[in-house]
Structure formats: structure tokens, C-alpha cells
Amino acid sequence: MDEQEKEVKYIPVYQKRLAKYLLLAKGKDRTMAEFAELCNANPTTFSRVVKGTIAKPLDVELIKTIAENSADPLSASLDDLMRANGMVRDNDEEASRRVAQKRFEERSRLMEEVQSIIMQELFSRGFTIGPVLGTPLEQSDPTLKRSRFPLSRAVRFAFRVAGYEPAFWNFTVNTFNGEVLEGREDYKREIHLESSSFIIRYSDVFLRDMWEPEAFENSKFSIVMIHRDLFDEVLKRFEGVKVKNDISLILVDTKEQRIAQEYVFPRYEGKAPESFLAQPKHSFASRED
After folding, report:
1. Tens-digit pLDDT profile for residues 42-75
2. What is the secondary structure of 176-188 as a DSSP string?
3. Per DSSP, what are the bridge partners of residue 251?
4. Superfamily name and number for 3-88
């Protein structure tokens, strides 16, 4: 075998390792059937992976989808899944680690950018923001510690906003940006499928609101999105849905560095909460303090 053949030789499938990463990606709060549906996969395929009876590597697109929907992206990353699936060459491990690190850094920068944009929108309307919390919701808000419905998507940041009701505001961020769909002929269909995945991904938020509404008392929960077409499609799917607490969808325009829209879900008791965007911006530049 010459050097070129060695270079393209792929490592074998590590069945036990692949099963481990699949279980980590699924998380504790989802069944394997639910996770398979979220990944548009056959539940039988995932069952074979867990049992260690899979005979050949999974399709690379499925591996990517598993990674995108991973409940623990740090412990079950795309790099981990690809290597366990036999799709990373032996001499490519360092390169793949650099790629994984770059993606993690890009995701972290996006989170910081979104947080900064939301803070600026609040500041510009005269709101005062208290300590910024970057811990999971259950740790941030003591009233939620006994919740029977732990959230599969951690709160990315949280504010205490003086002059706003409710004062405690939690945010989670959906990082779908549509890049993988650019130029595809079935773009609209894929956006519709992505909206289905979105609903499944955040269903526990609405289950908690319905079955354990006291867990959201005195707090607001917002799901932040950065892709307009997905935002609009999700709004269509949620048409007519009412909630018991303060829940909203926020569309952030990262190009224009602003919040483009906030949709606040109507309440069962008839209350129609107003978006904070309705508050006029203050002209701080004109002040002579």
C-alpha cells in the first residue's frame, strides 16, 4: 500500500463509542424515538447503533444532523461522532479538532453578539439591566428547581430588567442561519422541515408552561432566532397557540445589529402582552447631563 492509499484510509466504526455519543446527543430528557424523529432518522437505525449491531457507517448527513441536535454538543460533537463513525482519517484528527474548535468559537461569538444586541435594544428604551446570568434556568431561578420538566435547551443568558414586568427574563438561542440550504431547489420544503424540528426542540418549554405554569411565574422566556424565513414559518405553525405565562419569539438581525421583531404569545386569560419593542427609543445624544 503506498502513502497516498494510507492517507485516504478511514478508521473502522467504533460501535461502542458511536453508541455512547448517540446517547449523549439524545440527552436524558428525550426518548430515542423522539430523537430519531428530530433527526429525520429511522428509530430502528438508532436502536442498532445503541445495541452495537450496526454493520456499516451511518450516512454523513445523518451524523451532521445528530451533531446539530445534540443535547450536549461539547461531549457529543460532530468531530466525536464522525471519528466514532469511521469518517475521519487517522492523520486528520488535529485538523478536525481545529475545525470543531473554530465552530465552537463561532457559536460563542454569535451568542455574545445576540446578547449584546438585545441589551442595546433594552438600554435604548430606558431599561436598566441587572446582573447577566449565564447559567441554566433551573440554577438561575430558584422557583424552577423542583420542576418535573427540565429544559433540553439551556438558557444562554438571563437579565433582571428594572422597569419591566416580569423583571426576570430568560433567553435561549436557535443558531440556525440557513447557510446549509443556500441555493437548494427544495429550500421551502427544507425550511418547513426545519420548523418542525424547531417545534420538537422547544416543545418542553410549552409543556412546562401548560403542565407546570407556576415554574414560569415571575419570569419571561424568549426563544431567539436569527433566520427570517424560519422565523416566519415557525409563526405560521404557532398560529392560534396560547400560553399561560410570558413567552415570546425574537428575531435578531445580526447584519443590521437590531431586533427585527418580537412575537409575544397571547395568554389564555385574554391578556395580550405588549412587546418591549413598543416602547419608544430614547434620544440619549440630545441630553445635556
Report:
1. 999 999 898 888 878 888 889 989 998 988 887 7
2. --SGGGTT-TTHH
3. 225, 261
4. lambda repressor-like DNA-binding domains (1.10.260.40)
